[in-house]
Amino acid sequence: MRLTAHTDYALRILLHAALVERDGGGLLSIADVAADHGIPRNNAMKVVNQLAQAGLLATVRGRSGGFRLGREAETITLGEVVRLTEPCIQLADCDGCILKSHCGLTGMLHQATQAFLRTLDQQTLAMAARTSRLPQRVIAAE
Questions:
Q1: For the segment 45-101, what is each residue's pLDDT rounded down to a tens digit?
Q2: CATH code of the domain covering residue 42
Q3: Is residue 114 part of a domain?
Q4: Which residues pair with 124 in a beta bridge?
Q5: 41 assigned to some structural domain
Q6: Which domain holds residue 40?
Q7: Which of 26, 30, 35, 116 minimizes the number of CB atoms within 10 Å of its CB?
Q8: Do residues 77 and 123 touch, judged by C-beta distance below 8 A?
Q9: pTM of the entire structure?
Q10: 3-class DSSP state for residue 18?
Q11: What's the number of domains the chain is made of?
Q12: How far apart are CA 125 and CA 15, in angstroms?
């Protein structure tokens, strides 16, 4: 299984926000985070907007605005983020298959997907932040 770039960006942005918060930092700017991670600014803006609408990020408008975590990192599971950002979490396109109604793979693939999501549901953003750190060049820029 491969997650979409949108989900990858969401996980990176959330982890970045969690690391800054853990280290006592303040608001982040979309432009800075996009540049730090090599994410196109428009894509980062869409991701931040989606995460803010879901309450995972809090945004502050205005000249000195930006964003930060909207909830404690301990309460944000990776499974929640993947479900929010992935348009389809199917391992195969069973809907377009002629074997759909009598296929032995369908149940197996569904079980594998559920196991994947259960594992991510047990992992929090705080857990990921414990063993992560921002590069020195990013810390110096903030």
A1: 999 999 999 999 999 998 888 999 999 999 999 999 999 999 888 888 888 888 878
A2: 1.10.10.10
A3: no
A4: 77
A5: yes
A6: 5-89+124-141
A7: 26
A8: yes
A9: 0.89
A10: helix
A11: 1
A12: 6
